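Design a sequence for this backbone.
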């Protein structure tokens, strides 16, 4: 890490890592029940304990894992269909990756791959907040990614262990953890006309898309519409200045 951020003292690199861990903890608390639910539902769908853990270790994508688990539980064994469906759901990662690309692209390939693997909605939100306030830091992103990844894998393991005691995690309301996380990410960022408008456009397009578009395309439609509106409004604001 010192060679990557050689322009900074080693103590600052270490500090950024732990600050990334610290800033992520409030969202990590919300991820834990979601991971527990994932572990329980994986076994309910017919996966073994090892398969459930390996899925969280190598996929590390909550929404995609739940969709894959649901499809497997419904008897859909065609891996091609499962892969295509989960890829469609995760197309929003293209937008997240594109916004972080100017910072990550300058790093060695192995580090680009490692950091990209750790980009999920929560780590992206934490990272963007850091960039807006103090600029980009590799160590900060590593800290954020690592704490979320560890929490996800460990909570999945806990879910596997609890599967014999909690047969239906949805009855406990554990499925509300993910919406609660997204709400906690979103609300503090609605601070001006641009963010409020973008949020409103995304919500409207998502609802209409969910009604009329097949599959999960409403997610992509909402992302593209919000991105276009936000870009236009920010460009107008720059011209006005």
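Sequence:
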């Amino acid at each position: 890490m010192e060679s990557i951020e050689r322009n900074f003292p080693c103590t600052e690199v270490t500090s950024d890592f732990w600050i990334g861990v610290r800033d992520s903890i409030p969202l990590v608390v919300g991820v834990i029940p979601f991971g527990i639910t994932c572990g329980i539902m994986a076994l309910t769908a017919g996966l073994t304990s090892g398969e459930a853990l390996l899925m969280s270790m190598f996929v590390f994508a909550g929404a995609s894992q739940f969709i894959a688990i649901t499809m497997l539980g419904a008897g859909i064994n065609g891996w091609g269909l499962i892969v295509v469906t989960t890829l469609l759901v995760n197309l929003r990662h293209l937008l997240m990756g594109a916004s972080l690309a100017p910072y990550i692209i300058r790093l060695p390939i192995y580090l680009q791959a490692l950091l990209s693997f750790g980009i999920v909605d929560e780590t992206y939100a934490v990272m963007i907040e850091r960039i807006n306030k103090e600029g980009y830091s590799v160590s900060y992103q590593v800290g954020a990614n690592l704490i979320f990844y560890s929490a996800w894998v460990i909570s999945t393991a806990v879910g596997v262990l609890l599967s014999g005691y909690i047969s239906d995690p949805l009855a406990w309301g554990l499925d509300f953890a993910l919406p609660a996380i997204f709400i906690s990410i979103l609300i503090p960022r609605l601070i001006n006309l641009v963010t409020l408008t973008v949020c409103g456009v995304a919500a409207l397009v998502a609802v209409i898309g969910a009604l009329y578009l097949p599959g999960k395309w409403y997610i992509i439609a909402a992302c593209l519409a919000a991105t276009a509106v936000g870009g236009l409004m920010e460009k107008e604001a720059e011209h006005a200045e």
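Residues 10-189 form one domain.
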